[in-house]
Amino acid sequence: MRFASFLDSAAGRIFCTGFLPERDGGQQRRILILPPFAEEMNKSRHVLAAIAKQLANAGHAVLMPDFYGTGDSEGDFGDAAIDLWRRDIDVTIEHLPGTGDVDLVGLRLGALLAVDAASRHKARSLTLIHPVLDGRQQLTQMLRLRLAAGLMGGGEKETAAELKQRLSTGESLEIAGYRLSPTLAAGLEALGLTGGPPAVVEALHWVECVAEEGRTLMPASQRVLETWEALGTSAEVSTVTCDAFWGTQEIARCPALVNHVAGCLAV
Fold first, then answer.
1. pLDDT confidence band for 13 (50 / 70 / 90)
2. Where are the alpha helices (DSSP H) in the chain?
3. Is pTM beyond 0.85 here?
4. Domain positions in the chain
């Protein structure tokens, strides 16, 4: 049964979509899909919805929230914070039917939030799709949009260091239609995969999208996974040939990724 409704969360109501089976099944998984950051979320919505539908067709309970201040949820992006998004995740997990451990699927920044959530909730599996390796990388990417817009608009020349300094003094920045607050920027900087492996789960999948068949993981990703391996955590690593749909100018579909993620979560 398709689910689309508001859930009460810490700062306001968040909009949540997905599929909830009409009856509990013995092999049913409880799956939470966590979207990426800012405009990447808008570009990715159709692919994540397709993943959710395919998992639901396999009989699983699947939900995906719009975090507070994003999508159709209440609040403004400028009032968003990582701690509020943590509570949004907690509320969504609580709404999943059943009592089994949750399966967490995250795309890009959503992968970072999935690893973070696994430290607070009993997770059966983690599926990390082309993860951002740390929140500082996401913040830098956001600031570059501001710098590029300034160069094209002929405005006052800025630097990334100056923008970070302004954030550190409490100023919010307008970037590509989003108001980035110092609170959200600081929360982003505190997230990362490089500090150590995630909580112990039954299955850990690391999936990257590549432009051509035969390409390997990004070197930075390989270094993270080698660190995890040295600390006793192994991941099942794979690549899928498809466009980087979260950043393409035109809407890009990736049926191969949809099928692959469904396979990772097959019972």
1. very high
2. 39-57, 82-95, 109-118, 135-153, 160-168, 182-189, 219-230, 255-264
3. yes
4. 2-134+201-264, 135-190
pLDDT of residue 27: 64
Would the CA dihedral through 117, 123, 129, 134 be positive or negative? positive
Are 225 and 237 in contact by the 8 Å Cβ rule? The answer is: yes
Compute φ and ψ for 135, nearest 5 degrees.
Answer: -65, -25
- Whether the CB-CB separation of 138 and 41 falls below 8 Å is answered with no
Which residues 6+ apart lie within 8 Å of 142 measured at CB? 37, 38, 175, 176, 178, 180
Nearest to 264, CA basis, from 239, 247, 246: 239
Total number of residues shown for the chain: 267
Q: What is the mean pLDDT of residues 164-172?
A: 96
CATH number of the domain at 2-134+201-264, please? 3.40.50.1820
Q: Which residues pair with 106 in a beta bridge?
A: 34, 128
- Taking CA atoms, 179 is separated from 122, 136, 188, in Å, by 34, 17, 14
